[in-house]
Amino acid sequence: MSVVSLAVKEGNPVTEDTVRHMASKISTGMEFKNPQDVKDFTAILAAFHDSAMSILDMDDYVPLLLKPDFERYPRENISYPKRGTPENPLSGWACKFTIEDKKKTSRKGLLEGRTVVLKDCISVAGVPCTIGTRAGLLRASIPSVTTTTTTTTTTTS
């Protein structure tokens, strides 16, 4: 269900002049023959603007499963290995990091102590995601959430 209020907030940038200007830019040459049409379009577009802004101002919903536990699983040793070095002879590593469970249990997981490789388009909260580019060519995004694949891998190992 959509709820749109026709009450327009003070400072709303949608004005009758804005509506006339934007209508003139439409390739069909939209013209208002009735002055009330401009008022109606302005009211609707201004209300839509306020509704859209109130949605954009809201915090994104993040499911609890995707919220990282940085205390238990800190991201450590984040580095960008140089190409052609002994650590990265085939230039296969874009970014390396360590995630280790700081709250070890008595049971050993299948992946405990092993190296797991994730494609660098997999979201790991707090770790740069370079999407297959060399670090520096593209500004790396640092996600705030971790994919369920990664969460499951770290909690079961």
What does this structure look like?
This protein is mainly alpha-helical. 26% of the residues lie in helices and 6% in strands. The chain is built from 3 helices and 2 strands, in the order ααββα. The chain has helices at residues 16-25, 35-56, 148-156, and strands at residues 75-79, 96-99. Strands 1-2 form a two-stranded antiparallel ribbon.
Tell me the fraction of residues in β-strands, as a range: 5-15%
User: Multimeric state of these chains?
Assistant: single chain
Helix-and-strand structural type: mainly alpha
Q: What distance separates the N and C termini?
A: 43 Å
**Sheet with the most strands?**
2 strands, antiparallel
Shape: elongated
List the secondary-structure elements in sequence, H or E. Answer: HHEEH
The helical percent reads: 25-40%
* Low-pLDDT ranges: none
* Tally of strands: 2
Sheet with most strands: strand arrangement: 1-2
List keywords for this structure.
single chain, 157 residues, mainly alpha, two-stranded antiparallel ribbon, 3 helices, 2 strands, elongated
Give the topology:
Elements (H helix, E strand, L loop, with lengths): L15 H10 L9 H22 L18 E5 L16 E4 L48 H9 L1
Antiparallel strand pairs: 1-2
Give a brief outline of the structure:
With 157 residues, the protein is mainly alpha-helical.
